[in-house]
Amino acid sequence: MAAGSSSAIFSSDYLAREKRVSDAFALKKPDRVPVVPLIVHFYPTRVMGISNKEAMYDLAKAHAARKEVTIRHNWDGTTAGELFAGKMLELLGDKQLAWPGGTLADHLPFQFVEGEYMKQNEYDEMLANPNLFALTATNGLPDEARPENVQAMTDAAMEYGIYH
């Protein structure tokens, strides 16, 4: 490969993992079954001695734990990051989740709060334009959510949603 190509940047072990996962996605036979746990939630942070509350409010620490545990277990990959950030949930006034450090004790995992979030008369609207529907308050984003809070959520996702 030419200078500056991925082989000059990444180790052969990383490239083998990338090929293994790519082959599986392309329905080709990989050298072995890739191991990429999709739902690990608080496992990496627990292993690293981080409380569930701390994992919800310190995304950099949660990311470092996920990275370390992925390397420690020799996984071929991991999920993109934390799905729920405590501060983001607070700013948005989220009612669909209960989380450690929010309404739950620090050691408990997050929990979905059952409710009727989509009313029967909204299905036609959703089917007619799913994208527009997803951007309206009916998706759980409260009407009183301030635009600066929604922007803060977006900024946090952009900043912490990328692994380096």
Q: Flag low-confidence runs.
A: none
Give the CA-CA distance, first to last residue.
Answer: 23 Å
Major sheet summary line? 2 strands, antiparallel
Q: Give the count of structural domains.
A: 1
Give, in spatial order, the strands making up the sheet with the most strands: 1-2
**Helix and strand succession?**
HHHHHHEEHHH
Total strands: 2
Q: What global shape is seen?
A: globular
Structural class: mainly alpha
Radius of gyration: 20 Å
What portion of the residues fall into strands of 2 or more residues?
under 5%
Mean pLDDT equals 82
Individual helix count: 9
Question: How would you sum up this structure in a few lines?
Answer:
The chain has about 160 residues and is mainly α. It contains nine helices and two strands, in the order H-H-H-H-H-H-E-E-H-H-H.
Describe this structure in words.
There is one protein chain. The protein has one domain (11-160). It has nine helices and two strands; from the N terminus they run H-H-H-H-H-H-E-E-H-H-H. It has helices at residues 6-9, 12-25, 43-47, 52-57, 59-72, 86-92, 123-128, 130-134, 147-160, and strands spanning 97-98, 111-112. Strands 1-2 form a two-stranded antiparallel ribbon. The mean pLDDT is 82.
